[in-house]
Write a structure and sequence with these properties.
CATH topology of the largest domain: D-amino Acid Aminotransferase, Chain A, domain 1
Distance between the termini: 56 Å
Largest sheet: 5 strands, parallel
Helix content: 25-40%
Radius of gyration: 21 Å
Number of domains: 3
Number of helices: 15
Bound molecules: adenosine-5'-diphosphate
């Protein structure tokens, strides 16, 4: 087992990893930018190294600075968390070259899945259903229009380097194609430095259902059931749950098998997520694979009662996995609490938290790095907390979530708590009757 793990991340996930390391008797090193000096991950790690100014490119995304921190602290492994360098194959390669274990898959596996077109091609070969679309990159508007006509509108233009919903445009008719093509390309170029574009059939009124998988170094891959991430805003997840209210035993068997096939086709090592779109007839299509721990992993932890970070570290250290799939024993829902103003188009709301009272009680879990007096910096992702509830049934879980949201108090900044509170009263949400377009028609009531 590792002696000391450096966590190349910040916020709640850095703290989450430190917790598991402590329970496993592994020493921890936090890295932080000057904007995060007062963050809890810095306080709770055994050692902490400042790696630069607030801008992520000069701190959390700087491979030389992180490797220098690894060297001076003598860490023997790096946990990348999610975001930042978690899916950066070059970083994983540098770790490998220096004899430091990157807790995640190999650089080759990250590369195969990081580029969405390559990933789709790999899935087609493995016999996993994918969304119909262009055969690889589309070179220009003319070719794009021909392909779109062939597959039929609506189509979705996507960036091969895509992530976080960026570089994606839905096109409903040919006359709008060129405009959407240009803006998708521009966004892809500025977000990823890569304006490679491909086209997919736009699956109408789909659900986003993903499967958690884990693979060991000996070729074994199992699944840990699904997470439903259909409640999204601008292609970004707001709430996740397991089981999916849309799931049947038959569908779980089929999708689970496809997810394992996806992982096995590249001998996947580590925890990963295979994302699918599911249409109303329960046809499912591979969308992409994330080769890291995900924000919403606690949902799975709560329903199958397993510490996924611990499993991830064990697999990285060479332990074999148990070899069976895992199925939900409970219902769990996670609400992402963002420092955003839901009444003002979810505008970011950084600043000082004057008052903080965490939701508590049976079946309630809060993963967060913030506290009263903490200043939410404006430089990073706006997610400041995850509220996870679990109960025997979905209905009880929603009731618990309402109660937990009511007692979760964050003062001084705006948060998405009022949005989630109203979501829990929405009849369509309660009935499990929704698709990824849910937020297009959701009307938030302003307080009197
Ligand atoms: P990213 O990596 O940027 O998050 P994804 O490929 O995971 O992008 O897609 C994010 C979301 O965009 C999906 O959850 C879904 O809501 C929507 N989406 C992506 N592709 C399609 C498609 N072909 N049809 C319908 N919706 C799609």
């Amino acid at each position: 087992m590792f002696n000391k793990i450096l966590i190349a991340n910040r916020g709640e996930i850095a703290l989450r990893i430190i917790r598991t390391c402590k329970e496993m008797d592994i020493l921890t090193v936090a890295v932080y930018s000057t904007a995060d000096k007062e963050s809890l991950h810095v306080r709770f790690a055994d050692e902490a190294v400042c790696i630069g100014p607030p801008a992520s490119t000069d701190s959390y995304l700087s491979i030389p600075k992180i490797m220098a921190a690894v060297e001076i602290t003598n860490a023997d492994a790096v946990h990348p968390g999610y975001g930042f360098l978690a899916e950066n194959a070059d970083f994983a390669e540098v770790c490998q070259q220096y004899g430091i274990k990157f807790i995640g898959p190999t650089p080759g596996m990250i590369r195969k899945m990081g580029d969405k077109i390559t990933a789709k091609e790999t899935m087609i070969k493995a016999g996993v259903p994918v969304v119909p679309g262009s055969d690889g990159l589309v070179k220009d508007v003319i070719q794009g229009k021909i392909i779109s006509k062939e597959i039929g509108y609506p189509v979705i233009i996507k960036a091969t380097a895509g992530g976080g919903g960026k570089g994606m445009r839905i096109v409903t008719e040919e006359s709008k194609f060129e405009e959407m093509w240009d803006s998708a390309r521009r966004e892809a170029k500025s977000s990823f430095g890569n304006d490679g574009i491909y086209i997919e059939k736009y699956v109408v009124e789909p659900r986003h259902i993903e499967f958690q998988i884990i693979g060991d170094q000996y070729g074994k891959v199992v699944h840990l059931s699904e997470r439903d991430c259909t409640i999204q805003r601008r292609h970004q997840k707001l709430l996740e749950e397991c089981p999916s209210p849309f799931m049947t035993e038959e569908l779980r068997t089929k999708m689970g098998e496809a997810a394992i096939k996806a992982g096995s086709s590249i001998n996947y090592e580590g925890v990963g997520t295979v994302e699918f779109l599911v249409d109303k007839y329960r046809n499912f299509y591979f969308m992409e694979m994330n080769t890291r721990i995900q924000v919403e992993h606690p949902v799975t932890e709560e329903v199958i009662d397993l510490d996924l970070i611990k499993e991830q570290i064990k697999v990285a250290a060479g332990d074999p996995i148990s070899g069976h799939n895992y199925f939900p024993q409970m219902h769990a829902i996670e609400c992402r609490i963002n420092a955003e103003d839901p009444y003002n188009n979810f505008r970011p709301s950084p600043g000082k938290i004057n008052g903080f009272h965490s939701a508590k009680g049976h079946g309630v879990r809060v993963d967060t790095h913030v506290y009263a007096g903490y200043v939410v910096p404006p430089y990073y992702d706006s997610m400041i907390s995850k509220l996870i509830c679990r109960a025997q049934t979905r209905e009880e879980c929603i009731t618990k979530m309402r109660r937990a949201l009511d007692e979760f108090i964050i003062e001084g900044i705006h948060t998405t708590i009022p949005f989630h509170r109203q979501l829990m009263e929405n009849q369509d949400f309660i009935d499990g009757n929704f698709n990824t377009g849910f937020m297009d028609t959701f009307v938030l009531k302003k307080p009197e």
